[in-house]
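Batch job 17 of 40 flagged for manual review because the log was empty.
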Amino acid sequence: MYSLILVSSVILISSGCAGEQSVTDEEEISEEQSLPVSVLEPVQRDLAEIKESGVLRMITYYSSNTYFLNQGIEVGFEYELVKEFARENDLALEVVIVGADENPFDLLNSGRGDVIAANYTITPERREIVKFTRPYNLVDQLLVYSANSPEQPQTLEELAESGIPISVRRNSSYYARLQSFIDEGFEINIDTISDAIDTEAALVQVAEGDLLATVADDNMFDAANRYMDGLFPGPKIAEKDTIAWAIRSNAPDLESSMNRFLYKHFRFTEDRERPRRSTFLNVLRQRYFEESRQIAEFYNPEWQFQTIGIISPYDDIVKAVADSMELDWLMLTAMIAQESSFNPNSKSWAGAVGLMQVIPRFVETEYEQLYDPVTNIKEGARIIKEHLNHYSYMDSTNQWQMALATYNVGLGHMADARRLVIDQNKNPNEWENVSQALLMLMQRRYYQDARYGFARGIEPVQYVKEIMNRYRTYEAIIALAENQQRGGISNAMISTGRSNEF
């Protein structure tokens, strides 16, 4: 009898060096099989351009194993792995969440993002559109049945005879795998579902009995099965699928740099049965694919309902303070995340304390009261409001960037940087010019004539980048939350666009 435990068509070639690549058998892709994309030619944005901007943009989904917020803190397997790559390359990381009507490949090739990090399987279809890095994980594909399924077939013949619909997205690697069985003569009943219903959302519907069966990667199933009732694992339909990051086809330097990074954390042994993983990667795997409080909360429907639209535990306070001062509450929240990671007891080496790292000498409030969240947020908001007023004649974006930099480095160093910009016959009201001048103030030939001397300019520059990046991500999360609220909790995971793969 034909077993469903089949080896994936993806073949890996291990060279034992940093440039080790994964390749697939060459397959002709028909027009009907190819993935729908709008952007056919990728923009030119390789590692040099990314480093010049100082920001790496990660395209992903709001998902338990890719990226999500827990008590205001950004977490997720893919997020932490990409963040480590960004850190090693002195880059800020911006998360670009794929919207319900957006195509991640178009986001990548149009330049809105630089890498798709979403637990993507390498497939021939996808390789027609993007390049893949070397792999950093191996997964098996398995059928997952609902308690409402009349039976749980264990062979292709049984599956074909049962007629049970297997619900998968057209753009998933699961669809391609099931289609290959049909091409071999097996009458598999594929139920094509919306691309907005990702693997995680499909598993929820299977657990609730709304779908009879789906396909999932084993690591995702194992994580979900710990916190959902009603999931019944079936047989594997593919083994050792390679998971990698997707990048533009014309970014060889980014590809090489990412391959070197990933080689340190994941490589194949000679027998290819037990890949070697770094301690860092093993910690991430344990954190996101085994039992943990964060993942348990993520899968808890009650917690999901209670936390729709919530960025941090201090949202109500921040909103109230922001409203009273006519400030953007999401920007204040992004500042708090940057300053203290939402720890009200935080204290820096320079003596700044509390959620917004307020320096006691700059306020009239008693020192101990600065550890009170309400007091601290009010004082921090008052200070940033003063800086915003100082730059009130600028457009909104430059105004906020200048004010944030001033909050971090002070008015004196900002004045020095702007004078330096004027000396270069450039516009001192443009943050791009001022940020370059702040970096110059780290060099003796520039700071020796500056009124306030040396400035560690890299810190305010990175500070502004990371807050602005986080602010945009928060905006996307709020937009997803609004969709959740309109759709109700039963559709919440669908409308967020959560996905482990497109």
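Reviewer: the log was empty due to a logging misconfiguration, but the result itself is present. Residues 1-32, 301-306, 489-502 have pLDDT under 50 and may be disordered. Unflagging and moving on to job 18.
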